[in-house]
Amino acid sequence: xxxxGLLSVVGIGPGGRAHRTHAADEALGAAxxxxxxxxxxxxxxxxxxxxxxxxxxxxxDEAGRAARAVDEARAxxxxxxxxxxxxxxxxxxxxxxxxxxxxPEGDRPRIEVVPGVTAALAAAALLGSPLxxxxxxxxxxxxxxxxxxxxxxxxALAAADVALALYNPRSRGRPWQLGRARDILAGHRPGGTPxxxxxxxxxxxxxxxxxxxxxxxxxLAGMTSxxxxxxxxxxxxxxxxxxxx
Length: 245
Hints:
Blueprint: E1 6-11, H1 22-30, E2 33-37, H2 38-43, E3 53-57, H3 62-74, E4 78-83, H4 93-101, E5 110-114, H5 119-127, E6 128-129, E7 135-139, H6 147-160, E8 163-167, H7 177-186, E9 194-199, E10 207-212, E11 225-229, E12 234-237, E13 240-243
Parallel strand pairs: 1-4, 1-5, 2-3, 2-4, 6-13, 7-8
Antiparallel strand pairs: 8-11, 9-10, 9-11, 12-13
Helix pairs in contact: 3-4
């Protein structure tokens, strides 16, 4: 017999109301307890209901938020654990599921993962259709993945000639990884390969820059940016970047 509560791990999309699904709104509005990183809770504040207990977390405490969400659901609450983008793509779903899996089967609450629009799709739509053929997603953050593994995957994907969506490309604490990634990619792809840098997709202050691999300035990107790197199938169709089909 499972624990009586329900944990919904909710992907809220890139941040704007227009790109948040109806299912996400329903899960957020039906919760007794809503847990999330503070800025993400702000982005979905319009979907929250009166009387809910809202628990704001800090960056870097993702595992703690997931564990608390599982505990609240075990105790009988209906919980919404908020994740940006899609909860299963560099989001909160894995942490929540692992925390629940560590419990005896009878102590686990019911869990549902509510999908959302991930950053790669939101950014691609602003550029045109750069992911219309094969593509891969890779995070440049070495917080959970050793940088040696990131580099190994970059080399393999660059040689595989697929479009790349680079998550977490640069931050104040990690200012050099995007430049290193550009240099690795340049060893496999022409300098004229199109590159799109999209910051704050679907949010206030949204910025879209189209450049090339040779001219990519890492300073264009920040923690809320997504970098899309084309492949041999990528081309310009008027003002739009597309992947040939």
